[in-house]
Write a structure and sequence with these properties.
This protein has 246 residues and is mainly alpha-helical. It has a single domain (53-239), classed as Orthogonal Bundle (Hypothetical protein af1432). The chain is built from ten helices and no strands. It has helices spanning 2-27, 31-63, 71-87, 94-103, 119-131, 141-149, 160-171, 175-183, 195-208, 216-239. Helix 2 (31-63) packs parallel to helix 4 and helix 3 crosses helix 7 (160-171). The chain is globular and about 55 Å long.
Length: 246
């Protein structure tokens, strides 16, 4: 019984090429043409894999226009998340990370935002409507949902892609870039937020964001960014008469 079991795969492997040749010969289809068709299919699949990233990147650039959480923020999050994962020698699915990074704040924009629902939860819910039909491997959509759902600094990320997107997003609230993002929100016409309110947001970020950076690489990078933000706030208080002339 065991001998027959071992022989059957060998017979099958031997017969398949013969039968394939016979079928092609009878139908008049050259074997070379079949091979070329197969190669073309592989090239098309490879092109589709690249094209979906181009489509998602262009979608992000076109629709997410905001000085604090627009396209440039997505670019930084993706780049920094990859850097942190590489430093930790962590295995991540770059398809998942790319899609999540460039779409994680989509529900902060119309028409995807939903009143009363956190943008992370809403984005995770509707991200498939953007990725569907782009060529993105939809079997990975749950990983994208998880990364988007967990990207807020006060949430607990689930999965490696979620962890590194979460930490990159948190670190983007600190340092010089954190200052630039919040100051960009100040209404030049005297509305809200004004200068003092922006400072209050920065002080809140300094107080609460650092403890939520979780990965080893993120924790190593965090003190430098925290110090940058702390120094800025100290200098600003001194130069504005403790914000009275801000």
């Amino acid at each position: 019984m065991r001998t027959r079991t071992r022989i059957r795969p060998y017979i099958a492997r031997s017969l398949v090429p013969c039968l394939t040749w016979l079928v092609l010969a009878c139908t008049g289809v050259p074997l070379q043409a079949q091979s070329s068709s197969s190669d073309a299919g592989k090239k098309a699949a490879s092109a589709a894999s690249v094209d979906w990233r181009k489509t998602v990147r262009e979608f992000s650039e076109q629709h997410f226009k905001h000085p604090a959480w627009g396209y440039s923020h997505c670019e930084r999050d993706y780049s920094l998340a990859r850097q942190l994962a590489a430093t930790d020698h962590a295995k991540i699915d770059d398809d998942v990370l790319f899609a999540a990074a460039f779409l994680h704040d989509m529900a902060g924009f119309a028409p995807w935002q939903k009143q009363g629902v956190d943008h992370a939860d809403q984005g995770a819910q509707v991200v498939d409507t953007v990725l569907q039909g782009t060529g993105f491997p939809m079997a990975k959509i749950d990983g994208v949902r998880a990364a988007i759902r967990g990207h807020n600094y006060d949430r607990t990320p689930v999965g490696p892609e979620a962890l590194y997107l979460h930490d990159a997003d948190a670190l983007d609230w600190l340092g010089a870039i954190g200052v630039a993002r919040i100051i960009s929100l100040v209404d030049p016409n005297g509305g809200k937020p004004d200068g003092p309110k922006a400072v209050a947001i920065l002080e809140d970020n300094l107080a609460h964001v650092p403890e939520h950076v979780l990965s080893p690489a993120g924790r190593a990078l965090m003190p430098g960014r925290r110090a940058e933000l702390a120094q800025f706030l100290k200098d600003l208080h001194r130069e504005s008469d403790d914000l009275h002339t801000l």
